[in-house]
Amino acid sequence: MDFTHPLVPGKLVRRYKRFLADVELAGGDVVTAHCANPGSMMGLNAAGLKVWLEPAHDPKRKLAYSWRLVEMDGAMAGIDTGVPNKVVGEALRSGKVPELQAYSDVRPEQRYAQASRVDFLLSGDGLPDAYVEVKNVHLMREPGLAEFPDSVTARGTRHLGDLADEVQKGHRAVMFYVIQRDDCDRLDMADDIDPAYANAFDKARHMGVEVLAYACKLDQHRITLDHPIPVIRGSG
Predict the structure, then answer these.
(1) Among 178, 146, 177, which Cα is nearest to 160's?
(2) Of 11, 31, 110, 194, whose CB has the highest number of CB atoms within 10 Å?
């Protein structure tokens, strides 16, 4: 996924009201940027961090900038939770996810279960339909270990149950974790943050829900899906 406009560097002043961030630009001006992230952003929202904003170039927008990236100790992380669906969609359509490249038809945002929309519904001749849910990951509390979630997510827990139900119907179901940072080499569930989600993850995996975790390649020009990383449990 390429950024539409060149990113502008700045220094984070504060993130507040979940979707707003004040950023000091190079010239000293402080602007308010949209922060497309409803989570806690633990470890990514400390004052003084270098951040990268994308100018909106849309007169109808209330805010002239959107916060896209943050740098920490030489590492880069994406903070926009809408990005993973875009990079996974690009990768699926171009056949760059080996585990799912046999599917020729990729349909986003399809209704399923009782009150959900699956991020991608894949189909192909002679293949069971594959229901793919995508989750954004950017929490790291231990070097190299990505964790999900960074806050309690009842919606995410429901999605695990929905996927398990699809397996029982004879379909494939995949929970696809996108690690939107470039300094992690493994993924685990954050049991202490949301034990209900961690328990639902273990149950869904036992019932046949497949789990994929991919790291991203990030820079000031684009974010792309890069390579798979292992999912561990209880050994982080």
Answers:
(1) 177
(2) 194
